[in-house]
Specification:
Elements: E1 2-6, H1 11-27, E2 32-38, H2 43-46, E3 54-57, H3 70-91, E4 95-98, H4 104-113, E5 118-122, H5 129-134, E6 140-143, E7 157-159, H6 164-170, E8 187-191, H7 198-207, E9 217-221, H8 227-231, E10 239-242, H9 249-252, E11 257-260, H10 264-273, E12 277-279, H11 289-298, E13 304-305, H12 315-324, H13 327-338, H14 345-359
Parallel strand pairs: 1-2, 1-4, 2-3, 4-5, 5-6, 6-7, 8-9, 8-11, 9-10, 11-12, 12-13
Length: about 350
Amino acid sequence: MRVLISAGGTGGHIYPALAIINKIKEQEPDSEFLYIGTHDRMEKDIIPKYGIPFKTIEVYGIHRKQIWKNGKTLTCFLKGYRQCKKWIKEFQPDVAIGVGGYVTGPVLYAAHKCGIPTFIHEQNSVAGKANLFLSKFVDKIGVSFESSKHDFPKEKVVFTGNPCSSDARKQKKIDKKELGLDPKKKLVLIVMGSLGSSKVNELLTKTMTLFQDKTYEILYVTGKDSYEEMKSHKFPKNVHLVPYVEGLTKVMKVSDVMVSRAGASTLSEIIALKLPSILVPSPYVPNNHQYKNAIDLVEHGAALLIEEKDLKGDIIVRKIEEIINDKEKVQSMKHALEEFDIEDSAYKIYEILKEMKYEK
């Protein structure tokens, strides 16, 4: 299979794209790929490391407040569209896949105009602008949440789940001793993304002292930008700070409760691993989509929620205590998470792509 794929801007788009690529390679080892990303976002550093042929276009999102900047946005879109048509004619893909981010706009639109079967995937419960635009032109649309089906033409939508869930299951558990943790004690994992959140770290600095004498341990992934400042504070012995963990799912597999943001990829891993969680959605994302992602789980009893504005006092300690020593609560949350789970999302997407290829 020859596959054109595009995703950009954040890990929440890039890692699901990689999960799809890995599944296609697993099923058809001779497959060839061309990945088109933005010229200045994180995919330019991540994708080439995997040996995947990679090209970039200059592209920008729509400006709602600074409308005068949209002239450049449109110019770059048209230029990128023309460049993508040229690459598509050279590469001759069997299918084209968009996995989120505004870079997918010109790429998938060009593929559609070239007569290539097209598929997009929406990770969040609220559709992104690029996917809403592309939904008029693509052949199939995969969604991670049942609630996002209504954003798209119903005849195109397939509930696939998030392909990151497949990779989460494959990860091996970490040995707790590698992180200086006690294998016999329960573990609460607190993480607010690879860069962390300075606002949340500030709010939780005092909270950490409240874990004194608790029977469980805390692993606080502060984020690289906040680690040195956080490390300067004195915390109880059962609170362990690290700046970053490579392959976080291997730690999630040995955790009893997770406190995290509500990005789509993180939620897909929480669902796949049936990990009880306390979600603190970022209020700084488009359309407040993390809150809406979280609400899908919370309303079904699959997670607890704390809004960032309420993150004060001992609220996190109380929420953790509500779960960690209550076996019935833990089992109830795990059972609720099963309702959201798609056993092999990446394979389901592969099957859709294969069918599209042969219908061409």
